Amino acid sequence: EIVLTQSPGTLSLSPGERATLSCRASQSVNRNFLAWYQQKPGQAPRLLIYGASSRATGIPDRFSGSGSGTDFTLTINRLEPEDFAVYCCQQYGSSPITFGQGTRLEIK
Amino acid sequence: QVQLQESGPGLVKPSETLSLTCSVSGGSVTSDYWIWIRQPPGKGLEWIGYMYNNGRTKYNPSLKSRVTISADTSKNQFSLNLNSVTAADTAVYYCARAVDSHPFDVWGQGTMVTVSS
Q1: Which of B61, B103, B107 is facing A35, going by the closest CB pair?
Q2: Higher pLDDT, B84 or B31
Q3: What is the pLDDT of residue B101?
């Protein structure tokens, strides 16, 4: 099973700043099948990024993903108030599909 | 546009079977991947399993001995059965959809299931 470790656990930033979130896999993610989701309280996760760097439909271009192999990054430029949420990564290239524990992005 | 809606009991007794249904609109359970995921209170997401290719299934090994995912094509629904539940199965349960080798792009709103006597 691939274990995904996200850092930091909590990130405190102000609107307008840039957020950089990390996801590290315990082994190489097959075909870079790494996704990022945003989750707000009481809501289902929302797909942001798939294939490590492709934005899902309707996702603003301030969200970008990068990385390959075992190290992946989600960058959010020019934070908007609605961006403050929990972000989790997911690998879907190997079974079992696994998720990271999440990074909470909070307003400073 | 595909939409999903979970339904089922919010309270299940220990040792009994948790049964949930996901109703699909705007798509067909005979194609794509149809998935169950859960999230214990305050914790991360856990993939339970999925059904694909009109009935084939794949489960998380950690739950495989207790899980069954199946479909009712006449109602365009798919279901989750999890037997011998304990308090550790208390969670929000989500159904979701994936297309081919893509991640989960459509999710239901989730339903909270509590295991308690």
Answers
A1: B103
A2: B84
A3: 77
Contacts of B69 (CB under 8 A, 6+ apart): B34, B36, B48, B49, B50, B51, B57, B59, B78, B79, B80, B81
Residues 6+ apart with CB under 8 A from B1: B26
Strand partners, B43: none
User: What confidence tens digit (pLDDT) does each residue in A27-61 have?
Assistant: 999 999 999 999 999 999 999 999 999 999 999 99
Cα separation, B94 vs B3, whole angstroms: 12
**Could you give phi then psi for residue A75, rounded to 5 degrees?**
-115, 135
Q: Is 80 exceeded by the pLDDT of residue B60?
A: yes
Interface test with A, best of B1, B6, B38, B47 (most A CBs within 10 A): B47
Collect all residues from A whose CB is shorter than 8 A from any CB in B. Answer: 1, 31, 33, 35, 43-47, 50, 56-57, 88, 90, 92, 95-102
Buried b (16+ CB within 10 A) or exposed e, A32-69: bbbbbbbbeeeebbbbbbbbbbebbeebeeebbbebee
State the pLDDT at residue B4.
98
**Min distance A36 CA to chain B CA atoms (Å):** 9
Q: In Å, how far is B64's CA from the nearest CA of chain A?
A: 11
Write down the pLDDT at residue B25. 96
